[in-house]
């Protein structure tokens, strides 16, 4: 399990989060409204507050803070953060105890629902969460007298959101391949990573 000290947040997001400490632009009521909207959106519900009413005289700053709150909340849930580590992170952002407690209370109440929503965002395809493997070596069989090399038995643990049970469903995918097939798989995965990195660098 990772913690907030290990996660890499963009410096711009941290600066945006610090806007909550600007009492002139972001009142306590505005901050609470933004958080309630944030957690509602991430659980798939409508925003309970009219956003334009929360912007006050500093709409750009409040919009920036709202985007940052959405971003870190999704990341906290995705990486399985606990309230204690989140408290430490928000404390380093200069948040007072009232702000921190309000955030963590909403987080604890909504974490599981947001987790389910994130799993299901954009696709019903399963996500790989763990991999196991072992090598079998066939020395001789009734069909062949000579060894044909090792066989790799790969097990993928996957999870996806199941609407019937309203939560995560874990499934196992097992397959066997020889050295050449495994090399082909690794090459294609590396190619996919390079392609994603190239796209990321262009935006």
Task: Summarize this structure as a short list of keywords or feature phrases.
3 strands, alpha+beta, 18% strand, single chain, disordered N terminus, 203 residues, 51% helix, elongated
Strand and helix map with partners:
Blueprint: H1 11-17, H2 28-42, H3 51-54, H4 59-78, H5 83-92, H6 97-120, E1 127-137, E2 150-162, E3 167-178, H7 179-202
Antiparallel strand pairs: 1-2, 2-3
Helix pairs in contact: 1-4, 2-4, 2-6, 4-6, 5-6
Q: Going across the major beta sheet, what is the strand order? A: 1-2-3
* Tally of contiguous helical segments: 7
The overall pLDDT average reads 81
Compute the number of strand runs.
3
Strand content: 15-25%
Structural class based on helices, strands and sheet pairing: alpha+beta
What's a quick, concise take on this entry?
The protein has 7 helices and 3 strands, in the order ααααααβββα.
Would you give an account of this structure?
The protein is an alpha+beta fold and 203 residues long. The protein has helices at residues 11-17, 28-42, 51-54, 59-78, 83-92, 97-120, 179-202; strands spanning 127-137, 150-162, 167-178. A 3-stranded antiparallel β-sheet has the order 1-2-3. The longest helix has 24 residues, at 97-120. The two termini are 30 Å apart.
